[in-house]
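Memo to structure team: turn this sequence into structure tokens by end of day. - J.P.
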Amino acid sequence: MKEFIPADFEKKWQEVWEKKEIYKCSNESDKPNYYALVMFPYPSGTLHVGHVKNYVIGDVIARYKRLKGFNVLHPMGFDAFGLPAENAAIEKSVPPEKWTHKNIDIIVSQLKMLSISYDWSRRIQTCTPDYYKWTQYLFLKFYEKGLAYKKEAAVNWCPKCNTVLANEQVVDGDCERCGTQVELKQLEQWFFKITDYAERLLTDLDKLDEWPEHVKTMQRNWIGKSKGAQVGFEIAGKDMKIDVYTTRPDTLWGVTFMALAPESPLLDELTHPEKVDEVKQFKEKVTKEDRFLRTSEEYEKEGVFLGTYAINPVNGEKIPIYVANYILMEYGTGAIMAVPAHDTRDFEFAKKYNIPIRVVIDNEDESLLGQELKAPYIQPGVMVNSGPFSGMKSAQALPKVIEWVKDNGMGEGSTQYKLRDWLISRQRYWGAPIPIVYCEKCGMVPVNEEDLPVKLPLDVKFDPSGKSPLTSDERFLNTTCPKCSGPARREVDTMDTFVDSSWYYLRFINPRMEDKPFSTEDVNKWLPVNQYIGGVEHAILHLLYSRFVTKVLYDLDMVGFEEPFKNLFTQGMIYKDGHKMSKSKGNVVSPEKMIADYGADTLRMYTLFMGPPEKDTEWNDKGIEGVYRFLKRVWSSAMTIIPHLEDSTEGGILAKPEKDLRRKLHQMIEKITKDIELDFHFNTAISGMMELTNELHDYTTNIAREKWNKPLLREVLEKLLILISPFAPHMAEELWHELGNETLIVEQTWPEVDRAALKVDEVQIVVQVNGKIRDKFMISAGLSKEETEKVAFERERIADLTKDKTIKKVIVVPNKIVNIVAV
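Reply from structure team:
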């Protein structure tokens, strides 16, 4: 018997499939299209088995859909721009391009070892000019539509490196590179106006029926729609007003101070000269704090009085203005009206700095008036100390307060969103250059489309400080103005890598197209993506940005759909020793080692057998050994059967053992099909394969070889191999050819269920007497209630139990149970 040695056949079939271009997909096909896409990776290094799970899920779906008769598009590319490549250039003197492509080559070889059935002819890399040319083109389209603009924004600034740092590059308030204390600085930055699409992004979530509800909830919360009022607070002694948005205008009479975010550009103007040093020190201190952690209710509230006052418009009171660590510039105007009696964070701040706390919403059941508050009252109640609205219930008063504020010229009703415009500019080198130039005569001018791409220079020198080499590369900087042909300077910011990944799923349709990013006709045939797969960590940014870009392209008549992904599946992580796999923890499991020890098929199948694919699971070495033993058992059963199928003749009438085996085959076809189609229950699908394999083994063991029904065994074995092939394609292909087939198993058709085979000749009947099981017996399937009852009472044990008793009730469920009540 031929031994089960995966290394003997896995590479062979990989070469055959690649040579025959089995997975190459055409945009012109008579078959129905199916687009299966896994989020493309950032090539920061090699893959570990935690990554493998993601790609195997996508591959099983793609292979299954091909067997079901679909024209399957299953592409792969690389999100190849980004900071790690730049860090490698600085730390290891390796050019980002070289470092990136080296990592891509490694990952491609790993994916090919696993036989992930990608159409490699459609491979894209976001760092190549033939891709980022079209990223720049889309930027220009956004700019033309008024959706790309430049404005000042607060950034983390390292004064020594002379560069902007991402939040992740700030460690305990210091630059991770040089250790210098980071400052908050206002710089001009490029933005995409995603806020123009906030309402559509929110309401269209209701159309995404095949998205996980928790992902939609995360996006709803991120967009953060709320209704309230925009109220103007004049500044005492200054000719200026600060607009504050509040969802609780019913608490305006309880405002006792105003607070600004440390990043607010208003701070300089509002800080009294005597307070400048104190405010500066506070801002430096806040820089060291996590800007989102500091807004949590648990974090200590701190601030500094600016020495200036605002006027509460509803009662004319002067209220102090503070800068506070719990206010974020990202939300609203970066200024809040503080109502300490009715807000937890305002309450803590007011307590700390001895600011008055005034109750304006009273508890109807137990009045809060005349007593010191131990905690803020945040529930609805009755308005008090609130001018003309005192005595009204707060919930009913809300719209009336908004109307009153508007009528009195203090503000107006407003709907706002937490969602901020998308900051897309990065002061980094390894990214897509922003196609804008600056001319002394014409000002800011977009690059002409015919002059794209604005190429990233590759032969640059990196400053150890981390400053982008684009800022000093005169060859890149110096250009001519597209309008007047005079001298101009290029924009030195590059685009956020999320811009690259916000449209890549469209480029896969026409990856080699040279005159436009994609064909509208072709993308409308393929999209929305039928099945998108990736980690839940991308639930907000990548998925939200992709939805936004698609809607803009729809408005530009470039695509005929408003949502990019029809179905979304978020897979769970694989943990080792209780932790997420990482090199720093030393708990990474190498796919190369697993393939060397057990074969690619075993690794593929084990990653899906560990548990439901949407759940986090723990890697177990014994578990992969169990899957290896299962595949070896399939191999052994096949090799035992195959030599005896050559002289097979018609099987004739099936006896009971053959009927049972064929029934099990079609039961498992039905089960495995449902497991794959519904919720991707791959682990239970594999269990079904194991069950069928055991039944096949039992048949060949218990039935004398000369009595084997050979046509039936061929049917069972061939269909079992097709069922297994999406999970373990190499072994399935090898055994398929051992059976004498000349075609490829990957080109076969998924087996259909024979409903007739599911019918049973006999069924087991359970007999209960007074609620207790007293007997079981086999009868012909389909007997009537009367016939089933008659057989039950004829059973010796039941006759004895009911002798001399009155039968009160008999309930018969045909083919299942007889329930007798006797007294």
